[in-house]
Amino acid sequence: MLDELHVRDYALVRDAHLAFSSGLTVLSGETGAGKTALVGAIKLLLGERGDVLAIRDGSSELLVEGLLVQGATEHVIRRRLNREGRSRCTLDDAMVTVGSLAEKIGPLIDLHGQHEHQSLLSTAIQLDYLDQFAGVPGAEALAAYQQVLSACEERKRELEGLKKAARTSAQTQDAARHILREMEATSPQPGEYESLEQQLPVLRNGESLAVASQAALEALRNEQGALNALADAQRQLAQQAGVDPRLDELSAQLESLSITGEDLAASLRAYRESVDFDPRALDEALSRLAALEGLRKRYGPRMEDVFAAWEQAADQLSLCEDLTGRIAAAEQQAALSEEQLLAAADVLVAVRAQAAAELATALSAALDDFAMQGASVEYASQALPRPSWSEKGSHRYELLYKPSEASQPRPLAKIASGGELSRLMLALKTLFRSNERPTTLIFDEVDAGIGGNTATAIALRLRLLAADNQVIVVTHLAQIAAVADKQLLVEKSTVDGVAITEIREVAGEERVAEIARMLSGRADEVALEHARTLLESGGAQ
Questions:
Q1: Among the four residues 24, 82, 383, 391, which has the most C-beta atoms within 10 Å?
Q2: Distance (Å, rounded) from C-alpha 378 to C-alpha 361?
Q3: Do 62 and 54 contact (CB within 8 A), yes or no?
Q4: Mind listing the pLDDT tens digit for each residue in 490-512?
Q5: Residue 497, phi then psi, degrees to nearest 5
């Protein structure tokens, strides 16, 4: 709940400290004293944008501070706004943005002024209240519907994608077929292009390679060749074996050279036999390389790009050839999803229909309590065409109002007055007062244009709402002020020629005098006696 409020240099408020009751607190005072300005200050704590025009004349900045208590947790919120439009926000002494403040603190206080009452004219808001009243069954039905709707839309997108592919132009398909014909005619193999590039120098120089390898082989193998010379040298050293270890080592090296030479000669012979000058093989390799080079130039620059183009063309044609079956399967899935959506929509409509009847009955009874005998409300539903279904459902819901039994129900926007809207909003808030956790509700102008028995009925309804929640009301009605747990008086005075607003709590005889002023505009004995009677009947301390 909002425990304390400190306002400095806001509108006409120079410096004010307010403490609120955990039940019902009313702010009263003459018209123009600054009651609504206090509501504006609270809005700053909820994360609303500030206006430099709200800074009190002669001051450089305004300050609004609030202490919000939730169980054992306390939050201190502070807003500053200077004339340059710079706003500073802190939450529990930590700097935060206005958006973060609205996200964290905004949901903790439910503020209703003239604008908020007007929001009830929105059919979207009316549906939100209906779903809130429907509770868990309504939430479950709505979630199930939304899940199936999402799946249904996904099936439709898949089907449309397949149909779009089926409408692929003949030119695109012909291009894919042309690519496949080129690829299949050449039939490139992975690594083939690189292999041909390596083989081509050998094919082009086969004769000279053969001559060179043959000459090297003869230099090793003929009678005067290196192998015979090594053998003779090794035999000479072998005759002195065992005499000098150093010479034995050299003899061993010669023997190793002879073995290596023999291996080298065998490798040269094998290479010479494998190399042959074949003009036809060279022509074939050049022709094959030219064909691969043509593919690489058209679809490259790399051979990897050539293979990717081949695969893409094959996929395109495969998709087109398989589309008929895939479209049929997708149409079947879409039809099944549509059936599931219809069933989920019917469940949601049924749950909402029951909740709508119960909510309308409860609201009509509340209006009767507000001395609006004969007035009633009802929810009208209208099935929407399938393309207009949304996450909100398959039907359009609207709250209709009947000012009397003989009247025809009509939309709120066309018939309800501002006072009737405020009372209907109050009735809604009373019906939803049993939340999981208490909240703070602030009403500004809830009593606009009413009096007499209606004022008494609204006072009792506010008192009922305050049994489970903190309620703060800006009012000019004595009936409402009399049932409050605490009354704060907002007064305007002049100090050094400057108008200022002051706020203080009134109690005892001072409160009796304020109630009397609210009743008749003066505190004569008749008004004072009436005020005492109101306070006693309202049970105020």
A1: 24
A2: 8
A3: yes
A4: 998 888 778 889 999 999 999 99
A5: 80, 5
Whether pTM exceeds 0.85: no
Q: Is 381 exposed, middle or buried (0-12, 13-18, 19+ CB in 10 A)?
A: middle
Pairing mode of beta strands 13-19, 2-10: antiparallel
Please name every residue paired with 444 in a beta bridge, in sequence order, or none if there are none: 474
Tokens standing for 377? 């409300």
The SS3 of residue 142 is: helix
Cα first-last separation, the chain = 21
- The whole-angstrom separation of Cα 265 and Cα 268 is 5
- Note the residue count of the chain: 541
Rounded to an integer, what distance in angstroms lies between the CA atom of residue 474 and that of residue 389? 41
User: Are the C-beta atoms of 404 and 335 separated by less than 8 Å?
Assistant: no
Tokens of 141: 């039905």
For residue 64, the number of C-alpha atoms closer than 13 Å in the C-beta half-sphere is: 26
Instruction: Write out pLDDT tens, residues 78-88.
Output: 999 999 999 99
Q: Residue 145 is encoded by which pair of tokens?
A: 């519907």
**DSSP code of residue 49:** P
CA angle (444, 423, 536) in 5-degree steps = 75
Q: Phi and psi (nearest 5°) for 397?
A: -115, 140
E strand or H helix at 411:
strand 410-411
